[in-house]
Amino acid sequence: MALLRHLLLLSLLLPFSSSDDSIGYYCDKSFNGGHIQADINGVLSDLVAKASVGGFATSSYGKGGSAIYGLAQCRGDVSSEDCSTCLKDAAKALPESCPSQADARIWYDYCFLRYDDENFIGQSDSGYAIILYNVENATDPDAFDKKVGEAMRTARAQAVAPGSGGLGRVKTKFSPYITIYGLAQCTRDIQTLACAQCLSSAVENFANYCVHRKGCRVLYSSCMVRYEIYPFFFPVDPGSSSMSKVGSYFTAILSP
């Protein structure tokens, strides 16, 4: 049975945040007990150390039913230095954003970090979503949407291809002056079929939030999709002046 979803639409114009700022976070499962916090701290320390090297890690800390499980992943195109910095920021911010919460997740431009007292590793999770969409519409919107669809199909195909590490990137010309940049990525703990299904579910949200929009992204706990009309992933195109956000964005939250 499909999950009933509640929409919280934040009618707020968001200036483009820097890569140092979190995009959003999720908190659940209040707890009392210093041993749980100690296990959380242990998982966070382990995740930062491991994922800073390879861009991805899972971990567990504690014993039996009181164990804490964690996952950290950086966007597949960022440098190890940027990855490490992002993970350290996330590991510091997440317990502060979700104090005494056993299920906590935080999203940044460059990385994603989560922990839980239930073993979620290897299970695809699309039950909670953060959606950011540009407040401005594209010129020739129908043709633009068609081009976005083509770009995202390519990015999704790349993300599920063998050896991709769950990452797909694409850039395509919409006009002589406008290039569409698209990215799709899954967390590396889920199987290829689950990755494809997660990305498909994420793109389905475009119909409700991203139609005609100059940019949009959908962030799940197991995958993400994004497109913009400026270069936001690495390597940066020669001659590009910056990777700054263009315009302002609305945020929508979908929760089970």
TrEMBL record:
Location(s) in or outside the cell: Secreted
GO CC entries: extracellular region
Gene3D superfamilies for the chain: Gnk2 domain, C-X8-C-X2-C motif
Top-level taxon of the source organism: Eukaryota
Domain Gnk2-homologous: from-to ranges: 18-120, 126-232
Residues spanning the signal sequence: 1-19
Keywords assigned by UniProt, alphabetized: Repeat, Secreted, Signal
Pfam families the UniProt entry points to: Stress-antifung
InterPro entries: CRR_secretory_protein, GNK2, GNK2_sf
Sequence similarity: Belongs to the cysteine-rich repeat secretory protein family.
The protein, known as: (wild Malaysian banana) hypothetical protein
Source organism of the structure: Musa acuminata subsp. malaccensis (Wild banana)
